[in-house]
């Protein structure tokens, strides 16, 4: 009996040369036939942006020996759309995005290009997982994440994912990860802060900065798990309806 | 007794000169003290993108007489962050985004800069509403939407919104809107399609296009309401956790 070798699409938001995506390329190459379609430049914080006012470029590149790779001028979501439509011409068996340099836990799921790529995969009906490590540095050490990434990918390949669900997996920094916890998204936000400067021509400009504010004491959250030294796995969906709020709104009288 | 005049922040994703935002400026000016902070260029499809790798510009402009207006070089989400932190120096009583030229119903909520601005407002704790009309044209006729926009804004100013909830309001095209329906987000997706062309230098490029595919026969959805000639109001939240999937995942054995 010939075993079916799964097809695996790999993308990210840090760009095709980021160290994090190299880890996925190495690990997924052990599990299936891989194709990489990733941004040609860093796309952190792009959220679910798509490129509609500009044309897109897609170029085959030869970065790692024997790996089919394409770089795209667009966003992570553009990469997924182009990969399915113009490279694979089919849905892959698995989409993995990352490994992101920096956490995409709690509210970061909303801003993250890494997670938006995985969400776009799920919208397309592809079992999709976004992986992130809580270290922004270019030389972040991904070694402790490797067995977890492989185990999760194997499990998703074996079982699929519930319809309309993707996974947001985050890893704490360090040499030892205690285990894996299935969690909910913690309630948190970034305080908006801006570093105001003046350019050489006398005009002001702003750099977006901010502090992460955790407003959640729950022990079932991704932030709690990460702080305890565990990897967090949050199942995510793309039905943003606040069902709890529907009865309240139905009672409103709009005087129309 | 002096009646408190509410402060209202207005933004959009079609850019500060779009006809849709002018409608909000006119209508909100009747309800409170308005400030406009909007992108200096069209930002459709920007999703929840934030600008972290480039500095931002924020310039006071004088477009409509007597209206305090600022244009920002960033995304709709950047506009909201800058408005709260550098213009208002407080949370406004209401944030309205739009009126978008084009539907943001169903899955479009994910790609929409208009809705992401409203979502950012909700993350900040501001009662926030995104408005959209199903007409992409620059000369779209917003007249039928006006009483609905005012009624919804008044209701939100009077009652607030449930914590962590924003509203996604969509209007059908036409001279007559039958009424207003509180709905859930329809299950739908865009088929990814690309228009492939060759530039004058012989290199290929792609334009993102696509067809809207509605996979939902429910009569409680935004798409159903809009097709029936009603305005749709979907309460939206930013907890993307798929709670239904948590028990399934907890049963997985990751062999770690």
Task: Note the main attributes of this structure.
homodimer, 256 residues, alpha/beta, Stationary-phase Survival Protein Sure Homolog, Chain: A, nine-stranded mixed β-sheet, two-stranded antiparallel ribbon, 11 strands, globular, SurE (chains A, B), SurE-like_sf (chains A, B), SurE-like_Pase/nucleotidase (chains A, B), metal-binding (chains A, B), hydrolase (chains A, B)
Q: In words, what does this structure look like?
A:
Chains A, B: It catalyses: a ribonucleoside 5'-phosphate + H2O = a ribonucleoside + phosphate. Chains A, B: Nucleotidase that shows phosphatase activity on nucleoside 5'-monophosphates. Chains A, B: It is found in: Cytoplasm. Chains A, B: It comes from Solitalea canadensis (strain ATCC 29591 / DSM 3403 / JCM 21819 / LMG 8368 / NBRC 15130 / NCIMB 12057 / USAM 9D). Chains A, B: Keywords: Cytoplasm, Hydrolase, Metal-binding, Nucleotide-binding. The structure is a homodimer. By secondary structure, the first copy, chain A, is an alpha/beta fold. Chain A has one domain: 3-Layer(aba) Sandwich (Stationary-phase Survival Protein Sure Homolog, Chain: A). In chain A, the strands form 2 sheets. In chain A, strands 3-4-2-1-5-6-7-11-8 form a 9-stranded mixed β-sheet, with helices on both faces. In chain A, strand 3 and strand 4 form a beta hairpin. In chain A, helix 1 packs across helix 5.
């Amino acid at each position: 009996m010939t075993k079916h070798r799964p097809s695996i699409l790999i993308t990210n938001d840090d760009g095709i040369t980021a160290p994090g995506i190299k880890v996925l390329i190495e690990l997924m190459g052990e599990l299936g036939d891989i194709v990489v379609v990733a941004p040609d430049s860093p796309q952190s914080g792009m959220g679910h942006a798509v490129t509609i006012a500009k044309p897109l470029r897609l170029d085959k590149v030869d970065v790692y020996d024997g790996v089919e790779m394409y770089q795209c001028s667009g966003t992570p979501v553009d990469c997924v759309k182009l990969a399915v439509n113009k490279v694979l011409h089919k849905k892959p068996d698995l989409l993995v995005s990352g490994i992101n340099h920096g956490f995409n836990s709690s509210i970061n799921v909303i801003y993250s290009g890494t997670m938006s790529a995985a969400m776009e995969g799920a919208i397309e009906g592809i079992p999709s997982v976004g992986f992130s490590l809580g270290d922004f540095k270019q030389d972040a050490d991904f070694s402790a994440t490797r067995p977890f990434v492989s185990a999760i990918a194997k499990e998703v390949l074996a079982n699929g994912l519930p319809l309309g669900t993707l996974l947001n997996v985050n890893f704490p920094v360090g040499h030892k990860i205690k285990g894996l916890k299935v969690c909910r998204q913690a309630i948190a936000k970034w305080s908006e802060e801006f570093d105001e400067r003046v350019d050489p021509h006398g005009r002001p400009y702003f750099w977006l900065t901010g502090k992460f504010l955790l407003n959640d004491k729950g022990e079932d959250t991704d932030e709690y798990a990460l702080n305890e030294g565990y990897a967090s796995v949050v199942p995510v969906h793309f039905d943003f309806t606040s069902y709890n709020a529907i009865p309240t709104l139905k009672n409103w009288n709009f005087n129309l």
